[in-house]
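Morning!

This is the sequence you dropped in the shared folder:
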Amino acid sequence: MNYISIKNNQTILLSDIPESNYEAFYDMNLDLVSGHIERHCVNYFGYKVGNNVKLISCIADDITHEIMISTCLVHKAHDLESLSAKLLCFEKFEREIHENFGINYIDHPWLKPVRYAFNREDKSQIMDNYPFFAIDSEELHEVGVGPIHAGIIEPGHFRFICNGEQILHLEIQLGYQHRGIEQLFIEKKNLLQRATLAEDITGDTVVGHGTTFAHVWESLCGFEATKDIEFSRTMALELERIAVHVGDLSGACTDIAYQLGSSVFGRLRTPIINFLQEWGGNRLAKGLIRPGQNQFPFTPALAVRLKQILDIFEPEFIEMADKLFHLSSALSRFERTGVVTNADAVNIGAVGMAARMTGLNRDVRVSHSYALYSELNHNPILKRHGDVYSRIQLRKEEVEQSLNYIRKLIAEVPAQVSEIKNFNPPQPSSFCISLVEGWRGEICHCGLTDKKGELMMYKIKDPSFHNWLALALSVRNNEISDFPICNKSFNLSYSGHDL
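The structure's back. Tokens below.
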């Protein structure tokens, strides 16, 4: 067996990961995923070892709750067979490896730059010469949108090939902004700096990425979080889920010109994020999650205050949602618009809502549980049709589910038992992987240490990395006027992709 199976948030020695040649590595990872809907690639990346590149593959099994880690050493000058030619879910991972190290995949179906990272191998690859797919036809035309966005969203370019109003193909070009954030995790030696970096990976998932980093660091250092710490993280994750879902319902109403829904859902987001400010001093929850400590303990007084807020919020949310889902003009825009099939979701390795909208049961809270989700007996909400309506329904029902979880949590607030302690140094020559279900879906961070216990590699994957292709597939055969509502129904991250 050329892999090692570990659990979520587990640290192992790098030497414990079996190393094989590329041919065996290729065959094994192909066999691990092929024909197994319950398995998918949660991360696949490389790092330099002298003149070679060490590849690490992480395949998660949602039934056994294991993550299968394998590795191989390749020379960047060698041509390799691509896993993507057989399994499309590997395509973007391999494109990133190609971009970062110059490794050529001879049969990759889409070997283009994925990010235009500042430290890319081929500096001649620039945004101006991105090789868009094109169709030579007198009947078809191209429509370019972006990279300058009409709102405040980060830059991205969308190239449509259309037959009249009908979209035949959409190619999404990202990579306009880079903070080099993975490298900053190596350069910054202060734990507070690194925790702040994690919060800034994508601004609407502060808790999700902050919690994932905390889990990685605590595992590397052998720290076991107390119940009050895990309570606060679970609470904050579900409050973040509510706040973003409600805001996205407002945005969806805006895109179909339903002003009442836009206004009411937009207003309802406010008391949730205002409570986060009452709790930790910031409406986006910055500073709330810190490795090894409970910086802002959740008290019984805060529980009383939150219950008061939810008692007002919940009936108003239900009333507005009921109006929206009984409005025929809204349903006509949502239903059968922007469909992604279950087969496509499986094929591209979709995660989070983009998977669950098609009936694909992919939710880290149950498959690789952490914090207090096992106590909450989390049961993922699934839809079947893969359209805008399914994605809007998921948001509404997940808000209601999160409200139920929060009411359970505040019924029994644990006493603060955690103290701020100095961490043990990270275990040297080690590997740790952490998965957290952010509101978009599966977040994955991997930390690798060198012989001195210093971080030598920090790999980040936002769920958007998987799901941008789902958006591109969803608009095929739709009218171009449906693109805004399709886009908003996913609400994917530019900064989480570009890093």
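Headline: Residues 227-255 form the longest helix (29 residues).

More detail when I'm at my desk.
O.
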